What does this fold into?
Amino acid sequence: MFYSNEFIFIIHVAVIGFFALASLKLGKHALIAFISTCCIAANLFVVKQITLFGLDATCSDAFTVGAVFGLNLLQEYFGRPITKTAIWISFFLMVFFAIVCQIHISYIPNSYDIAQIHYHAILTFMPRITMASFTVYLIVQQLDSYLYGVLKSKFAGRYLTARNYISIGICQLIDTVLFSFLGLYGIVHSVWDVIAISYAVKVIIILLTTPYILLSKHIHSSTP
It folds into this structure.
């Protein structure tokens, strides 16, 4: 069966959007868990490099936007205080994940082990990536929470889709530039390619999430 990275990318976005809405249906605690999982997955998968639309890219952009989309859903339907709590919970779990990754690769493998070399290759960059992610995450998510709140107040709760476009678009531009230099410079082949394609991919993801934003209203209104 023929498939391409672009085809896989569309499926990837669709899956993340589906689980974001399913988390919304389950409630605020499920959304917090979804956001935290996206943050951890983004850090874990960012070291895999692919070619997407002819440029160098990483595999984590869909997770990054998924986390922000989840935060916006949380703030839209459950309020800003719980959104701030979600930011700190996901930050705490990212710290935990970074620490246990280093403990994991510190174990001395026995003669039967075949996995250590692969774990080491994947997780050896985790401290730098995680520190960069910590810094950028707190800046961007606090900015998104503030910006989304301002937009929601300014438009009196209307224009949900446009508000998501504006807040995610601005915040992801800042996220892409900061994280690419702090976390990936010297690791990826071309940091400028990564910035260009990552932001382009995030814009595409934002557009592809439009049906999910519209569906979220129906899903939340039908939740007991």
